[in-house]
Design goal:
Shape: globular
Distance between the termini: 34 Å
CATH topology of one domain: TIM Barrel
CATH class of one domain: Alpha Beta
Length: 348
């Protein structure tokens, strides 16, 4: 059985019979976990092991564990500051900021790999233009060169911990005010402007062997009337051909309001795959997930399967072993040293 093109979610902190049946569908290739799936490190480790044991090759298990507002697993995990704090540190001491970025990427990935999780959808490569509240301090910086430097250091840490990086949200979500969870954002800029700024971090990271990209549900009508996640121009002509990206293309969640532009759920999935995505996410709507799986029939993409297989996490120390290492202890202290709001505990 190959890895299918659909990533979906599960109901709770352990698998139900319904979950198991759905995850055995040949068009499923991965599972994304949310805060509702987490009670403790031991519990989520058991859940991941149960998911991985269902099939061979094992399903990919992913989570959004960026830090700051977007950290699904908290109690028992190290609190990760928003990466904008690394941008602030860069303005004071670039060398120290790059060191901290690598350590933060390592710590985030090492804790997840200690429990078997394959992917964290990070780092954010958007530019913080002060316009988009849903991005904001999730972005490293306003300057694309600084974003590229910090993200590369962060990726080095992730890879050292046994996890590949996924840059998001291509081709850039920072120049719109709207939240794509709630409406379709529109970016009126011309391609030349986007190319000279927002695409720079993606291009630099691709040259540093970035393994995955997640696409924004944003429309750039002066470039293409079709939102980026459903656009062959953005995914094939720009990302694959112009930028030379050879890794995995993930859609953003097809349950977001911005994705409604492409039609019902099966139409959204087909459009995203036809445009060039390797894996589509369908979250928080199990009925829609079933519709998508059924609609794909015997869909197969051997090249996508090979790309997806490279996203499996590499061998890494288990949770208990990790916490006994001097590197984990000193890195936790280093990460805490630049956390400006240690009591902040929000989740989006």
């Amino acid at each position: 059985m190959s890895l299918g093109p659909v990533m979906l979610d599960v109901e709770g902190t352990s698998l139900t019979d319904t979950d198991r049946g759905r995850l055995l569908h040949p068009q499923v290739g991965g599972v994304i976990l949310f805060s509702r799936n987490y009670e403790s490190p031991a519990q989520v480790g058991r859940l991941v092991a149960e998911i991985h044991a269902l099939r061979e090759p094992r399903l990919l298990v992913a989570v959004d564990q960026e830090g700051g507002r977007v950290q699904r697993f908290r109690d028992g995990f190290t609190r990760l500051p928003p990466v904008a704090e690394l941008g602030v540190a860069y303005g004071q001491d670039p060398a120290r900021a790059l060191e901290l970025a690598e350590k933060t990427g390592w710590l985030m990935a090492a804790e997840l790999r200690g429990l078997g999780i394959d992917i964290s959808f990070a780092p954010v490569l958007d530019l913080d233009r002060g316009l988009c509240p849903v991005i904001g301090d999730r972005a490293f910086h306003r300057n694309p060169d600084v974003v590229a430097e910090l993200a590369h250091a962060y990726q080095r840490g992730m890879i050292r911990a046994g996890m590949q990086a996924v840059g998001k949200h291509f081709p850039g979500h920072g120049a719109v005010r709207e939240d794509s969870h709630l409406e379709l954002p529109t970016d009126e800029r011309q391609y030349a402007d986007i190319r000279m700024e927002d695409l720079i971090p993606f291009e630099r990271m691709i040259h540093q062997d970035l393994a995955g990209v997640m696409v924004a549900h944003v429309c750039y009508p002066d470039v293409d009337k079709t939102p980026a996640g459903f656009s062959p121009f953005w995914l094939k002509d720009v990302l694959r051909e112009e930028l030379g990206f050879q890794g995995v293309i993930f859609s953003d969640d097809l349950s977001m309001v911005a994705a409604e532009e492409a039609g019902d759920y099966p139409a959204r999935a087909r459009a995203a795959l036809a445009a060039g995505s390797d894996m589509v996410l369908v979250c928080n709507n199990p009925e829609a997930a079933d519709e998508v799986l059924e609609s794909l029939g015997d869909f197969k993409d051997p090249a996508a399967h090979m790309r997806l297989a490279r996203m499996h996490g590499k061998p890494a120390p288990g949770w208990e072993e990790l916490h006994g290492t001097p590197e984990w202890k000193t890195t936790v202290a280093d990460v805490k040293s630049y956390d400006k709001d240690p009591l902040l505990d929000m989740d989006m």
